[in-house]
Amino acid sequence: MVDHTAGIESLGDLRGRRVLVRSDLNVPLDGTSITDDGRIRASVPTLRQLSDAGARVIVTAHLGRPDGSPDPRYSLRPVAERLSELLGRPVAFATDTVGASASETVEGLADGDVALLENVRFNAGETSKDDAARGAFADELAALADAFVSDGFGVVHRKQASVYDVAQRLPSAMGGLVAAEVDVLRRLTEHPDRPYVVVLGGSKVSDKLGVIDNLIDKADRLLIGGGMVFTFLKAQGHEVGRSLLEDDQLDTCTRYLTEAADRGVEIVLPTDVVVDTAFPSGDREPRPRVVPASEIPVDALGLDIGPESSAAFATALADARTVFWNGPMGVFEVEAFAEGTRAVAEALTKVDGLSVVGGGDSAAAVRQLGFDEAAFGHISTGGGASLEFLEGKQLPGIAVLEKD
Ligand code: ADP
Ligand code: MG
Q1: How far is the CA of 323 from the centre of ligand 1 (A)?
Q2: Residue 85: Cβ-neighbour burial (10 angstroms; 0-12, 13-18, 19+)
Q3: Looking at residue 387, what is its pLDDT?
Q4: Ranges under pLDDT 50 in the chain
Q5: Index of the ligand 1 atom closest to the CA of residue 387
Q6: pLDDT at 360
Q7: pLDDT of residue 3
Q8: What's the CA gap between 374 and 390, in Å, rounded?
Q9: pLDDT tens profile 116-128
């Protein structure tokens, strides 16, 4: 794919112009306190760039899943405060999305000022499946501004008013965050440096089918762990006890194994597994036990890859020039089952080349296990969007920005 997508420079001189920015500020909240401000931090560079260029910056974003009407639990007000701290300048807050407060707030902006509009999903038009309803809301959003910058990577796979329709109504460009994500994802799908190793884990095979389908003929090596591995092990004829299993995906796993063999793609499955007799809960101490992957007891559940597998996965990553990792190797939330995930993360930090972590839980795991984010080539901010990109799907919020 040729990149016809224009960056912010394509909008010309921004001094005094009202620029609407779609950011992804969907942070986890505990009441009104932000528990992880990663997405706000990631949004700051583009907003600062626009503000420094003298634009009157109007940020629109969502928080959670309100049902199309105002709901104080999902107010962006706490985010405005945090954003202001991170930007080091005041952020005006509009208490509605496109109403009187929004107009007044935008009116009040001087060159370089920044405002945040209330949760865009407080308006039912935002996520409506009806083109006319979405378009009508997009008209109102577009009326607030002279140009649009799309910088919320976490939502570019959504055909929503503030992502898609508004870009059809204003001169539009990609923000730096979206541009960086797209650049990395293209490097994973177009001409990856080899060896190219893909590591997949997480809970379900069925969540990752599209990615496996699309990457199986691009990767040189496919390492599989996490909950999804037991369907592969079962497909190979092994007992998996009470481990996570998707019976309806057994044939698919068999097909992947055959396809990989045909294409000369090396599939690395764990040879040992950490099991317990119950899924971890607060009720009892974990009793982790390492068993061969081919000898999982009938009453046990596999909760992590074992130490021999961790070492083999690290070896399989050592000479990689490109790595994409999605999905934890075990139930990393519990320390007793975090070792496999830690080993893979550690191996990624040593990769001489491009190492990419995708997926919400994988990114959270990296942070929770205390790794320095800078040790990875790229940690994707958008789980769903990056997976859809890697599945080879066209993302509406990107396609709409492409100029010819
Ligand atoms: P991501 O968000 O990075 O795409 P997923 O959502 O697919 O990852 O999977 C993350 C979840 O998978 C984690 O909550 C983790 O506890 C769970 N998981 C990993 N290994 C296992 C396992 N062996 N059994 C059950 N759940 C697992
Ligand atoms: Mg997840």
Answers
A1: 19
A2: exposed
A3: 87
A4: 1-4
A5: 4
A6: 81
A7: 47
A8: 23
A9: 999 999 999 999 9
Query: What type of residue is 100?
Result: A
H/E/C letters for each residue in the chain? Answer: CCCCECEHHHHCCCCCCEEEEECCCCCCEECCEECCCHHHHHHHHHHHHHHHCCCEEEEECCCCCCCCCCCHHHCCHHHHHHHHHHHCCCEEEECCCCCHHHHHHHHCCCCCCEEEECCHHHCCCCCCCCHHHHHHHHHHHHHCCCEEEECCHHHCCCCCCCCCHHHHCCCEEECHHHHHHHHHHHHHHCCCCCCEEEEECCCCHHHHHHHHHHHCCCCCEEEECCCCHHHHHHHCCCCCCCCCCCHHHHHHHHHHHHHHHHHCCEEECCCEEEEECCCCCCCCCCCCEEEECCCCCCCCEEEEECHHHHHHHHHHHHCCCEEEEECCCCCCCCHHHCHHHHHHHHHHHCCCCEEEEECHHHHHHHHHCCCCHHHCCEECCCHHHHHHHHCCCCCHHHHCCECC
For residue 359 and ligand 1, the question of a CB distance below 6 A is answered with yes
Q: Which amino acid is at 157?
A: H
State whether the beta carbon of 339 lies less than 6 angstroms from ligand 1: no
Q: Which residues surround ligand 2, an ion (CB under 5 A)?
A: 360-361
Ligand closest to 387 (CA) is 1
Length of the chain: 404
Q: What does the pLDDT read at residue 403? A: 63
Q: Output the CA 314–ligand 1 centroid distance in Å.
A: 19
